[in-house]
């Protein structure tokens, strides 16, 4: 166990030294990237910076591979430690170094991608400058794209105006429908009122006729009674 622990300690120390070295190298790469962006207009400076960054990237990638190899060896060794607490401790240490190496690799990949993109853009700019009609070609492309974008915007505005007009028409139809419904209800109310008034008038007219017959009958009976009383008293 002591031999294994000693080997693990040496490998772990080596991996930590490599991690510090890689971290410093990545920081230098970032400074080179800033320098490259600042001096992108100078072709000679850009070429020197590009060559230096490529060399740095190669060295960093080699050191990352070395750390990963050390992690594989440490992973094999910590599994052979009999003591579980020591085994768990070394497991966490190895996992930490492995995760750190993976982080370095991801950072380097991102830098490489950005660097390749900058190189490609620089080549495209140089090619455009070499072309006699490069500016006219670029302007024509921009003009066509601008016209297409303007056409899309006009179509979008027309669609929005048509939609707004349709919404307004539907709103007017809805208002007119509500007005017609209210007018219909008022007409029905008036008709119902007129129907009730006609029925009431007919009832009053019949009652007047009945009262008139009662009045005439009463007058006739009264006259008959008076005549009969007059004859009886003679």
From TrEMBL:
PANTHER family: GOLGI SNAP RECEPTOR COMPLEX MEMBER 2 (PTHR21230:SF1), VESICLE TRANSPORT V-SNARE PROTEIN VTI1-RELATED (PTHR21230). Belongs to the GOSR2 family. It is found in: Golgi apparatus membrane. Its main location: Golgi. One of its GO terms (biological process) is protein transport. One of its GO terms (cellular component) is Golgi membrane. Keywords: Golgi apparatus, Membrane, Protein transport, Transmembrane, Transmembrane helix, Transport. Gene3D superfamilies: 1.20.5.110. The keyword Transmembrane helix applies. This is Membrin. Involved in transport of proteins from the cis/medial-Golgi to the trans-Golgi network. The chain crosses the membrane at residues 213-232. It is a single-pass type IV membrane protein.
């Amino acid at each position: 166990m002591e031999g294994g622990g000693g080997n693990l300690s040496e490998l772990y120390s080596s991996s930590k030294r490599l991690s510090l070295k890689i971290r410093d190298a990545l920081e230098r790469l970032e400074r080179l990237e800033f320098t490259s962006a600042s001096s992108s207009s100078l072709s000679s400076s850009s070429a020197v910076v590009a060559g230096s960054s490529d060399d740095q990237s190669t060295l960093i990638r080699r050191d990352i591979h070395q750390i990963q190899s050390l992690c594989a060896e440490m992973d094999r060794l910590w599994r052979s430690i009999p003591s579980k607490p020591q085994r768990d401790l070394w497991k966490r240490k190895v996992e930490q170094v492995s995760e750190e190496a993976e982080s370095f690799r991801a950072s380097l990949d991102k830098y490489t991608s950005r660097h390749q993109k900058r190189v490609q853009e620089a080549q495209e700019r140089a090619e455009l400058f070499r072309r006699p009609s490069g500016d006219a070609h670029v302007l024509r492309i921009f003009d066509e794209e601008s016209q297409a974008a303007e056409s899309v915007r006009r179509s979008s505005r027309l669609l929005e105006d048509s939609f707004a007009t349709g919404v307004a028409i539907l709103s007017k139809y809805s208002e007119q429908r509500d007005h017609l419904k209210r007018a219909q209800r008022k007409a029905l109310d008036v008709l119902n009122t007129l129907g009730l008034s006609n029925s009431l008038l007919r009832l009053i007219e019949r009652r007047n006729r009945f009262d008139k017959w009662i009045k005439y009958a009463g007058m006739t009976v009264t006259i008959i009674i008076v005549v009969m009383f007059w004859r009886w008293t003679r």
